[in-house]
């Protein structure tokens, strides 16, 4: 196993990977970690095949970090909010894909790719496109919050 892998070109998209060209193989906190390994044909956990196990943890992570974001926005500290909200946007994209039992294959024109998925919040592609234009704005946070709420309901509904 290598120490570092290249970030696939299809993942080098604002706001996720603009300058980074490599990611650390042992760092599970890397955005789109398993999805990028899959794109590189490298061994990974394949969480999209076990959504029941992985997605509850992602929803819990959202719940823990959204209060932190509210605090940062109340102080108008968009600079500190930015890396947190970008992580949570990436996580939402994974949730929607993994809920549909597929990996994130590319972030290029992601809003169009979401149209092909069966389980997704209403108007997901337009709303995500809005969020991605200005991810650190409070209005983007509000849209993201609504998308998480809807995605979680969809996920648990699909389990029953």
Give a nutshell description of this structure.
The protein has 160 residues and is mainly α. The protein has helices at 33-39, 51-74, 78-99, 110-114, 124-133, 138-159, and strands at residues 4-6, 22-24. The chain contains six helices and two strands, in the order E-E-H-H-H-H-H-H.
Your description of this structure?
- It contains 6 helices and 2 strands.
- The chain is mainly α and 160 residues long.
- The protein has a two-stranded antiparallel sheet.
- α2 packs antiparallel against α3 (78-99).
- The termini are far apart.
According to DSSP, the number of beta strands is: 2
Amount of helix: 55-70%
Widest beta sheet: strand line-up = 1-2
Mean pLDDT: 92
What form results from the Cα inertia axes?
Answer: globular
Number of separate structural domains? 2
Low-confidence stretches: none
């Amino acid at each position: 196993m290598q120490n570092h892998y290249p970030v696939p070109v299809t993942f080098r998209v604002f706001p996720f990977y603009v300058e980074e060209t490599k990611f650390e193989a042992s760092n599970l906190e890397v955005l789109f970690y398993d999805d990028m390994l899959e794109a590189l044909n490298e061994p990974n956990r394949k969480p999209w095949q076990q959504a029941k196990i992985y997605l509850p943890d992602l929803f819990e992570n959202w719940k823990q970090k959204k209060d932190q974001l509210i605090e940062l926005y109340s102080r108008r500290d968009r600079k500190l909010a930015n890396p947190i909200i970008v992580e949570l946007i990436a996580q939402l994209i994974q949730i929607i894909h993994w809920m549909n039992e597929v990996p994130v294959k590319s972030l290029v024109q992601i809003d169009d790719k979401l149209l092909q998925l069966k389980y997704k919040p209403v108007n997901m592609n337009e709303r995500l496109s809005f969020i991605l234009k200005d991810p650190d704005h409070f209005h983007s946070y509000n849209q993201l919050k609504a998308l998480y709420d809807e995605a979680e309901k969809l996920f648990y509904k699909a389990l029953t």
